[in-house]
UniProtKB/TrEMBL annotation:
InterPro entries for the chain: P-loop_NTPase
Protein name: Bbp25
Superkingdom of origin organism: Bacteria
Amino acid sequence: MSLPTTPAEWEALYYAASPELRAEIDALLEADLAHHIWRAQVGRQSEAADSLAFVTGYGGAAGGGKSDLISGLALTEHKRSAIFRREKTQTEGIIQRLTEILGSTSGYNSQKSAWRVGERLIEFAGLDNPTDHQKWQGRPHDLKAYDEVTEQRETQVRFTMGWTRSNDPIQRCRVLMTFNPPTTTEGRWVIDYFGPWLDPNHPNPAKPGELRWFTTIRGKDVECEDDRPFVLFRGEPLYDFDPSEFSPEKVITARSRTFIPSRVTDNYFYVRSGYIQTLQSLPEPLRSQMLEGDFNAGVQDDPWQVIPTTWIDAAMARWAPKEAPSPMDSMGVDPAAGGKDNMTIYPRHGTWFAKPVRIPGIEIPQERAGPIAAAKVIENRKDRAVVHADVIGWGLSCCNFLTANGVQVVPVNFANGSKGTTADGTLKFVNLRAEVIWGMREELDPQNPNPIALPPDPRLRRDLASYRWELRPAGIFIEPKEQQKKRLGHSPDDGDACCLANLSTVKAEVWEEMQANSGGYDPYDDI
């Protein structure tokens, strides 16, 4: 007979025991609680508490003891903890749980949003405003806990994680992210972050609790074989190197990551309280999300979302790699220089979009942004494709260098007015930004007889689903890019570049041939 491994199995064993054995078990539990103010429940919660991963994702369904895990670890395993929610007032649930465990609010300072328990410090924070993460720059904690992380911006989470450290060499440092399946498209970044565990299409899936190692190279998460240090040589990891030949900041060590699912059935106390019945009464898709932890259950689109997520998914499902695609017709380019934004390039071959080319802005010095960005375009251009480039900001210099080198380029200023209308001719556009982005919506419409195929890229999926619109007297208006960046926490470089690639402009040589065949007559004069 195997030993019990879940709270329900332990409870069954307890009630099957004799009265004398139950009394002995009760005495042992009372003695244990006298020395330990909190212990993780047997099962998934214990697995998460004991995991050796630097970043642990925990949850997947309601009632799995996520807030309890954060509270318990902060009180028993860590000296300096920071607990984040989207809004600081939402940390009240953690504060209430800490009060239950400790039996009072002694040591809690509501004005400073901090709690001192002996030598331990627990701080509470919100990441609601786009600049809130900057308040935590340089402030070290050995536990960074993000409760309901799907409600928080990925960039702010990654930024604040950067100071997960301790001056005590024997103190365990870690990041804990707890969450249910996201209910909005903005929260789906966690599925990409924990891809091996949560993405059903991941090429190398992982088991619950299995450790994987990741680092960031050129602004992109890269999975490594293990935590062996390496350096980049010609853009590739080199493990066999002489440490004396490289400065410490050039040596990269991947950090471990895992995800451990939990359900309400893993929580002994909630099972006994009848919470399962409460979750069973929820409407779909919330029922599947909160009760079963189904990350594939329907995420609700925003009512003013320009492009429905199902349309994007259908276009990505149509995509397949091609060794010899048709000639390249168009390139969409969103230039960048310096900073954290990428320069992003999307090539289009007819109705088939190739995988994006991303160059971290930090690799393009601002003082030479024009020629370097133009060179990146030329490197990836084929078949004399027309380049459609965002001209705002660094794009103007890039376009000037491309033109000077004989590249057919169409500068696109999203702020310019629009003369276009929707495909049915009923609505106008406030500006060119609205026309270009709405044009992508019309291409992705299931009613389109010539459907396009988009590469199944998580970042592109998030960007295309993030555009919001409203109807004004002058026509369709799309949320400004700066406002969109504040809401998302990142620039929609992929979405903008892909929408630009969707534009169609006649190639110069085709135009010249048309004019030659018409005897100099401009075939567009009558349009």
